[in-house]
């Protein structure tokens, strides 16, 4: 167990390439991962998640700032001296070694005594239920088994820190859900600090104690899943987290505290926030629909209904925008119906249209 | 402790410098001999054979090139080599592409043995075939004929061509050909409208390799020609005879023989390597 | 399946009036044929020379062997020399000539070069015998009288020692390939009065004369250190000629064309600074090796009469004179050797005339290639001090006995 | 109904065969026939210098092959040449490939230039090294002398051992780039994450190379060894040009293939020469099989798993 | 528009391979795809979906049975004569042709007049909003754009039937959702019969008029999304459709009509169905949880809680089985809590444990 501290960490690739002013791949990351926590790095592809993880592992140098593990600067420490294990997206199992050798390799390199290796390998193998394939080569295993071997390899090392780089992304949906649950149980049992990279918000939400949301190399928000979901700090977080996506649109002030989506009769009351234009967001599952009586206009027209079994997603054309509402069951409206959108139950999220930062509703009323 | 001995950063830099220096040494060793031969061809031999070679730029002369290019005894082989090289390439590609395509696409029995036997051809020492080949070619009137050389080279190079092309064709997603079938192509159209254009870079590389191989051959050309069909390497080798070892001319001929191959190789290097190595990895 | 060429009619006689066309394969030693002889021949005989091809000497053997093996008739006339006359003659690939077809005044070594065991397989085109060439400039620089040739081997060695300073060597030769090693040994054997084979082709070169000759040769390199070490890697007479022309070598024994090379514009030497004389002997006054070349007729030729006409034409006085004057080779007939114009054009001819008084041989045999290969390995080993000359020759002789047994037809 | 479907498949097969025919025909006619003829000759007493009467002598030529001291000598030289060029060449190729696999400026151009020696035709290669190692005018002596390493010119090409070493050097020089690029491609085929995993697992450079890199380039490595073995056993052009067609000095560069050439074309012993050539072919195949066995085969298991 | 009829269609691969008794890849498929319908083939990987599609397209021969299109047998019709368009999983765009040429290729091969080709290409390109990339090569396009080009290519042909082979599986989550909606709209506009292969049940549910569920080459169920979801015909369909997966377990009869999950106090009342053992299923979202009072045992113990934002998945250990319940919001229970599972709102699905077929509840009461 260990605490990991990032202090305005930045990374620039390709500094040496002929004078091109290289852009920061990652910049100014500052946060503390508490000992024993399970923290996810969440963000779209290319936002620098892997880069951050690699810097923590020591696989990449830090360009600026510093990383402390348990208060100790690790810049000069080789990866293997940092007491951490890495689970790679493609598992990175050594294809020429048997599963047993794969798990034992890291221990051998550390000169762990032979009998100790055996105990540890068989221990971690039984924990992940792969004792029966210890003699197989990785090629002969299914994706799920490979995944377990990669985990067993990490566990056998008994490191202070686990680093995961999208470990589930190569599994199919069913297996992914299963392994996710197992991962959660595993963390509870081992209690080691874990840093988990993913671009799947559902994964991040279900697994983590804290989530680091990143975008374009910058920190967007660092908080608990609850905070991330219910109090997104930026418009990016709001739109990235939650499925279906949050409905976000620009509303214009009409009268005190009342804002309208232009071209529609849809209005919200935000109180006085001192802005003429504001970005407003509603989660689809917090809104409701009411089919309007014939002859009245309503807020918009149902464009399509997508039944998902227990719920249905209804897409509504609202002026020149689309608005999604998730209704229970197979729904009651059909394409072409005119509907009102009812947002009374919904939490309203507001963002400054220029800084994209959350406007605290505390300020509103 | 190792990491306190030198800082991580410094250590990385040191490694980089050492490796850089090694790369330079390697490159010098790889390039110098050829550069020296070029020097031989443009400097008068007296300037180079002195105790300390006199490499002043004023000494450079292209006389030997002029001489060779004005010598009909040398021009003939150049023309022959070009004709043989190009024709061999065309024949190899025509027969090879069809064969490789079939191997890559149609699952028939004996497909694997066929591919393997293609590679076995590489194990045959040319020496063993020289006399029978000569008899064969002479009996059909192709001895000392360009056509004789062309068909012989085609036979020798075809296995390599097929070996390479198969790996390129196998890389074309079958769904493309299915799409083409739905779009209304017949099998032949699928080949020349879809498969060949898609494998174009690989085919170009293979073609270049075929050209290079036929262009560079010495032994077969030596045995299967006597005069009218003599090719450049044979002529070049002949610059050292009982009564005529002329270093400058030999070097010049060497450079002339090597240049087209060099140019083609450099143009297609990426694909040549890919074609050969992919065959290798697939084993 | 194929009829043996030997079973066809006997030796070729001159007869009728040949016509039609012929194809000739020659080495690239002569340029006079394509320059003028062919035109003259066509004019005089009405026979057309459809093609005249020149090949590199080193390549010709393989090419001809392949051609003959396939019973190819694309060439009617092929170039030959002592070794090939024996080899291809015995193989039945060359047309034997009747005595009546051979001009009467041919010099014997020239005729030897186209014969094997009494059968004549062609007619010579020029004679080539090695003589000694020296660099008078170097002689003068080292205080030696440049006009006198050494009378015997010891004098030669003494001279060579004086001429050896720094990067300048008193002597150089070409023993970098099997044929070269054979020639250099043969020369030593002959000047020691030895013989390669007895009358029945039993190899006897490992006798006293051979051992003495090889010992003396090794001494030049190892003991006296007068031999340019490059000699061991020079693979042909042309390179030796070039080396000599660069002016840092005192003495070479070389073929007549050395004269042309040494007096060419690019050479450090001139007519005046080039000395020429007999090769100094050890047990005999002098001796030399022969390298004469000739033309032979392809057994499978369809027009042998016309081919014979070419062979005879080349041996005529006019052509031979041209060869002497324009190319510096020796003539094949005695009459041209005596002609004053010839001597005027080629001063070394005088030396050659003297040479004819002594032994000049080549011992062309069908097993020449194998033998040269085997002998050269022993010679080079001896030269590098890895074996004693005696052991080397004994070993080579054993090999030779096997070869003779295999190839000499009873 | 099923008949129609069957017909379609047959049409497909026939089309495939049609495409294959020309290539196979050319190869069989121009290589198969001569190959058969050569094997036929190898069972004959067929020495052109002894006239045109050939007779079948069974395996006599092959028996001679086993007992001939010249063959033993040549095999020794071949072994020397091959072991160095194959094992040394491939080892060197891996080292250089690892060097070039690093990211550095101008990497692309270096890789391209690396192909220069490969593209030099063998004949030219021979001439080139002759120019360099010539005993009297070669640059090698000039350089070594000016560096004070030697005082007098070394006659490189007059000493059998030295000439053999130059031959080894020349061939290695020519083939190394290809092997390098092959190995480079192989190295690039090793997933980078394996190295990262190894770094985390605490493997040092040495362990990483032996335990991670090498096992993962097994396939290409085997290919390189097989191909290079074939080339090494069949080396000809460079010897021919470098030694003036003699295989000298003192037979010092007469490898088995060159001996086959000399026997066939110098000695005109076609029967024995063919036997020798057939022997070489068998040797080449045996060595290929040897490498395959060493590397545990083309790994049928893995193939089955892939399929 | 066309009707497609499959009459006990079967497919055997590799009959020709040396005597190995080849198994049926697909067997005995019989169903009718009505003209204008959008039908999904749904099933796990390797179940023969692509094979079926290929047989309809004529890219594979039918081994047994027959396929009729509009009542006409198509066995000996070449693919291009069947008047259908195929959208491939990897798009199968011709990389050496520009987008324009890609779309026009099929028309050219059919000798459509040049001006007609131009109209059709530009028509379908504007419909899919890819006019601006008509000159580009596929390499220069993003995944979503490639997808649209593949669709445009199919549309331009104006075929009677569209065949889709997992057209969305190569897109990232966001794009997949978007394209799915578009596909639905497109089908509504064109009205052509569409057969859609997918292994994603959500996709099948949202898009289709009818769903064909397959498993191991066999037809499991052919019905509307509603039927598939609420009345799964087999246990396979029940477990495959719906996310999270249906809780399925074997219950034993205790007294008349009452069945118990062995080793627990959890019972259900099924009425008299004449079986001692029965497979019983509940959808997680139809169950509720109640934390039991301290001291009582309850049905099971909460093992983990996975918050997903608007809902949370609670995993409960029930004897030696796992039981999943989806609760709204971030949930109120924590791991270790003892809970009762309340199934009063839930629809009970029963399956015969040997035939795996649905036991009609009609028979029950
Ligand atoms: N070795 C490198 N050299 C140069 N640029 C790099 C290197 N590695 C990554 N990058 C760049 O840095 C950026 C961030 O990459 P990174 O791999 O950290 O993204 P990521 O968030 O992990 O994305 P993904 O979800 O796709 O894995 C990308 O734009 C990438 O192109
Ligand atoms: N050409 C073929 N030859 C032999 N077997 C095949 C062939 N194509 C497919 N199969 C086998 O048929 C079975 C069904 O394959 P199919 O491609 O139809 O599955 P699928 O349902 O499309 O799966 P996925 O979702 O993975 O695409 C598989 O087990 C596959 O291995
Ligand atoms: Mg990443
Ligand atoms: Mg499929």
Automatic annotation (TrEMBL), chains A, E:
SUPFAM superfamilies the UniProt entry points to: MOP-like (SSF50331), P-loop containing nucleoside triphosphate hydrolases (SSF52540)
GO MF terms here are: ABC-type transporter activity; ATP binding; ATP hydrolysis activity
Domain ABC transporter: residue ranges: 4-241
Q: Which GO terms describe its cellular component?
A: ATP-binding cassette (ABC) transporter complex, substrate-binding subunit-containing
Mind listing the UniProt keywords for this protein, alphabetically?
ATP-binding, Cell membrane, Membrane, Nucleotide-binding, Translocase, Transport
The family database entries (InterPro entries) matched by this protein are listed as:
AAA+_ATPase (IPR003593), ABC_transporter-like_ATP-bd (IPR003439), ABC_transporter-like_CS (IPR017871), ABC_transpr_MalK-like (IPR015855), ABC_transpr_MalK/UgpC-like (IPR047641), Mo/tungstate-bd_C_term_dom (IPR008995), NA-bd_OB-fold (IPR012340), P-loop_NTPase (IPR027417)
Q: Does the keyword Hydrolase apply?
A: no
BP-aspect Gene Ontology terms: carbohydrate transport
Has the keyword Nucleus been applied to this entry? no
Give the PANTHER family listed for this entry: MALTODEXTRIN IMPORT ATP-BINDING PROTEIN MSMX, TREHALOSE IMPORT ATP-BINDING PROTEIN SUGC
* Name of protein: ABC transporter ATP-binding protein
TrEMBL record, chain D:
- The regions listed as transmembrane in this protein's record are 15-40, 79-100, 112-132, 166-187, 272-294
Under the heading Gene3D superfamilies, the entry gives: MetI-like
Family matches, as SUPFAM superfamilies: MetI-like
Chief site of localization: membrane
Q: Could you tell me which CDD domains the record lists for this protein? A: TM_PBP2 (cd06261)
- Any one Gene Ontology BP term: transmembrane transport
Which branch of life, at top level?
A: Bacteria
List where in the cell it is found. Cell membrane
Q: Which UniProt keywords apply?
A: Cell membrane, Membrane, Transmembrane, Transmembrane helix, Transport
* One GO CC term on file: plasma membrane
**ABC transmembrane type-1 domain: residues covered:** 75-293
Annotated membrane topology = Multi-pass membrane protein
| Entry's family note | Belongs to the binding-protein-dependent transport system permease family.
* Name of the protein in its database record: ABC transmembrane type-1 domain-containing protein
């Amino acid at each position: 167990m260990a605490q990991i501290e990032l202090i305005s960490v930045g990374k620039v690739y390709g500094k040496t390439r002929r004078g091109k002013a290289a852009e920061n791949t990652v910049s100014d990351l500052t946060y503390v991962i508490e000992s024993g926590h399970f923290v996810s790095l969440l963000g779209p592809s290319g936002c620098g998640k892997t880069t951050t993880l690699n810097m923590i592992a020591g696989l990449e140098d830090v360009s600026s700032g510093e990383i402390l593990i348990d208060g100790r600067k690790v810049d000069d420490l080789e990866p293997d001296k940092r007491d951490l294990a890495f689970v790679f997206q493609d598992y990175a199992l050594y294809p020429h070694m048997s599963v047993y050798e794969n798990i034992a390799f890291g221990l051998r390199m550390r000169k762990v005594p032979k009998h100790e290796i055996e105990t540890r390998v068989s221990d971690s193998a039984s924990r992940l239920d792969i004792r029966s394939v210890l003699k197989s080569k990785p090629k002969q295993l299914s994706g799920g088994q490979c995944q377990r071997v990669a985990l067993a390899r990490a566990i056998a090392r008994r490191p202070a820190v686990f680093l995961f780089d999208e470990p589930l992304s190569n599994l199919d949906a069913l297996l992914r859900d299963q392994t996710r649950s197992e991962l959660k149980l595993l963390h509870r049992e081992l209690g080691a600090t874990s840093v988990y990279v993913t671009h799947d918000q559902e994964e991040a939400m279900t697994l983590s104690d804290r989530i680091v949301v990143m975008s374009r190399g910058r920190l967007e928000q660092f908080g608990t899943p609850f905070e991330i979901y219910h109090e997104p700090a930026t418009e990016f977080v709001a739109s990235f987290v939650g499925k279906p996506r949050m409905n976000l649109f620009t509303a214009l002030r009409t009268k005190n505290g009342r804002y309208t989506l232009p071209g529609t009769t849809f209005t919200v009351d935000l109180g006085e926030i001192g802005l003429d234009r504001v970005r407003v967001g509603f989660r689809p599952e917090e809104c409701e629909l009411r089919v309007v009586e014939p002859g009245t206009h309503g807020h918009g027209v149902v464009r399509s209904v997508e039944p998902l079994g227990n719920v249905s997603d209804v897409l509504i054309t609202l002026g020149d925008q689309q608005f999604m509402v998730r209704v229970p069951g197979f729904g009651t409206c059909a394409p072409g119906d005119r509907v009102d959108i009812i947002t009374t139950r919904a939490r309203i999220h507001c963002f400054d249209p220029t800084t994209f930062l959350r406007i605290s509703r505390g300020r509103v009323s | 402790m190792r990491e306190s001995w030198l800082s991580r950063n410094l250590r990385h830099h040191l490694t980089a410098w050492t490796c850089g220096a090694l790369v330079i040494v390697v490159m010098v060793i790889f390039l110098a001999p050829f550069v020296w031969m070029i020097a031989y061809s443009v400097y008068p031999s007296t300037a180079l054979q002195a105790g300390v070679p006199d490499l002043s730029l004023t000494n450079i002369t292209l006389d030997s090139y002029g001489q060779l290019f004005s010598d009909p005894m040398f021009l003939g082989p150049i023309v022959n080599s070009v004709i043989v090289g190009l024709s061999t390439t065309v024949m190899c590609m025509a027969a090879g592409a069809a064969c490789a395509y079939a191997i890559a696409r149609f699952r028939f029995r004996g497909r694997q043995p066929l591919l393997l036997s293609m590679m076995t051809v590489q194990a045959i020492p040319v020496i063993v075939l020289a006399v029978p080949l000569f008899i064969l070619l002479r009996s059909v009137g192709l001895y000392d004929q360009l056509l004789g050389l062309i068909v012989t080279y085609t036979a020798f190079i075809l296995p390599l061509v097929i070996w390479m092309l198969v790996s390129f064709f196998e890389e074309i997603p079958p769904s493309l050909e299915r799409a083409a079938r739905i779009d209304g192509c017949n099998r032949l159209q699928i080949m020349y409208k879809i498969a060949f254009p898609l494998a174009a870079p690989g085919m170009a590389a293979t073609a270049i390799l075929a050209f290079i191989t036929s262009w560079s051959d010495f032994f077969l050309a030596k045995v299967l020609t006597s005069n009218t069909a003599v090719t450049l390497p044979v002529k070049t080798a002949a610059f050292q005879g009982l009564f005529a070892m002329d270093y400058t001319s030999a070097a010049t001929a060497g450079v002339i023989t090597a240049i087209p191959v060099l140019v083609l190789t450099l143009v297609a290097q990426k694909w040549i390597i890919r074609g050969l190595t992919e065959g290798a990895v697939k084993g | 399946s194929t009829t043996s060429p030997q079973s066809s009619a006997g030796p070729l006689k001159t007869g009728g009036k040949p016509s039609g066309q012929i194809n000739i394969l020659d080495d690239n030693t002569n340029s006079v044929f394509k320059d003028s002889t062919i035109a003259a021949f066509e004019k005089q005989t009405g026979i057309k020379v459809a093609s005249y091809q020149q090949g590199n000497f080193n390549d010709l053997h393989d090419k001809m062997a392949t051609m003959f093996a396939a019973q190819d008739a694309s060439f009617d006339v092929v170039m030959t020399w002592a070794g090939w006359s024996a080899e291809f003659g015995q193989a039945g690939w060359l047309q034997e000539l009747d005595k009546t077809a051979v001009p009467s005044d041919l010099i014997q070594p020239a005729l030897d070069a186209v014969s094997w065991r009494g059968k004549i397989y062609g007619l010579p085109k020029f004679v080539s015998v090695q003589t000694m060439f020296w660099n008078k400039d170097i002689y003068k620089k080292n205080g030696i009288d440049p006009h006198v040739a050494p009378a015997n081997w010891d004098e030669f060695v003494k001279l060579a020692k004086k001429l050896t300073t720094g990067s300048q060597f008193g002597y150089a030769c070409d023993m970098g390939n099997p044929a070269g090693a054979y020639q250099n040994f043969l020369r030593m054997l002959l000047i020691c009065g030895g013989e390669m084979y007895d009358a029945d082709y039993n190899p006897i070169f490992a006798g006293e004369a051979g051992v003495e000759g090889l010992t003396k040769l090794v001494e030049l390199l190892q003991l006296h250190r007068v031999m340019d070490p490059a000699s061991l890697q020079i693979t042909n007479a042309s390179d030796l000629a070039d080396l000599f022309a660069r002016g840092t070598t005192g003495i070479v024994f070389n073929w007549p064309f050395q004269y042309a090379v040494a007096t060419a514009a690019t050479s450090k030497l001139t007519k005046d600074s080039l000395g020429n004389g007999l090769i100094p002997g050890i047990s005999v006054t002098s001796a030399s090796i022969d390298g004469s070349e000739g033309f032979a007729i392809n057994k499978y030729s369809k027009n042998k009469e016309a081919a014979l006409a070419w062979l005879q034409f080349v041996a005529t006085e006019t052509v031979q004179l041209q060869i002497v004057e324009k190319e510096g080779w020796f003539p094949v007939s005695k009459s041209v050797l005596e002609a004053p114009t010839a001597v005027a054009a080629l001063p070394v001819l005088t030396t050659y005339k003297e040479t004819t008084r002594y032994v000049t041989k080549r011992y062309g045999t069908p097993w020449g290639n194998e033998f040269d290969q085997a002998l050269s390995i022993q010679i080079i080993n001896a030269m590098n001090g890895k074996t004693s000359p005696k052991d080397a020759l004994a070993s080579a002789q054993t090999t030779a006995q096997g070869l003779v047994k295999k190839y000499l037809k009873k | 109904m099923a008949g129609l479907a069957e017909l379609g498949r047959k049409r497909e097969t026939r089309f495939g065969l049609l495409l294959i025919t020309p290539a196979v025909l050319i190869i069989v006619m121009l290589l198969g026939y001569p190959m058969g003829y050569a094997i036929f000759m190898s069972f004959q007493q067929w020495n052109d210098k002894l006239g045109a009467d050939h007779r079948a002598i069974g395996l006599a030529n092959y028996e001679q092959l086993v007992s001939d001291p010249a063959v033993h000598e040549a095999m020794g030289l071949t072994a020397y040449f091959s072991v160095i060029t194959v094992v040394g060449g491939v080892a060197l190729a891996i080292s250089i490939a690892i060097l070039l696999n690093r990211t550095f400026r101008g990497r692309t151009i270096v890789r391209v230039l690396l192909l220069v020696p490969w593209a030099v035709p063998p004949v030219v290669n021979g001439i080139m090294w002759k120019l360099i190692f010539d005993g009297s005018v070669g640059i090698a002596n000039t350089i070594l002398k000016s560096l004070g390493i030697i005082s007098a010119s070394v006659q490189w090409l007059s000493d059998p051992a030295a000439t053999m070493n130059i031959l080894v050097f020349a061939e290695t020089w020519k083939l190394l780039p290809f092997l390098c690029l092959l190995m480079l491609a192989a190295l690039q085929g090793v997933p980078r994450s394996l190295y990262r995993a190894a770094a985390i697992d605490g493997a040092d450079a040495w362990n990483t190379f032996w335990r991670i890199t090498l096992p993962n380039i097994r396939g290409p490595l085997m290919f390189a060894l097989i191909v290079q073995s074939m080339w090494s056993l069949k080396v000809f052009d460079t010897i021919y040009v470098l030694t003036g067609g003699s295989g000298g000095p003192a037979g010092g560069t007469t490898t088995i293939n060159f001996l086959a050439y000399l026997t066939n074309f110098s000695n005109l012993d076609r029967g024995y020469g063919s036997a020798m050539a057939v022997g070489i072919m068998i040797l080449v195949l045996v060595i290929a099989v040897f490498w395959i066995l060493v590397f545990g085969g083309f790994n049928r298991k893995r193939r089955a798993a892939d399929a």
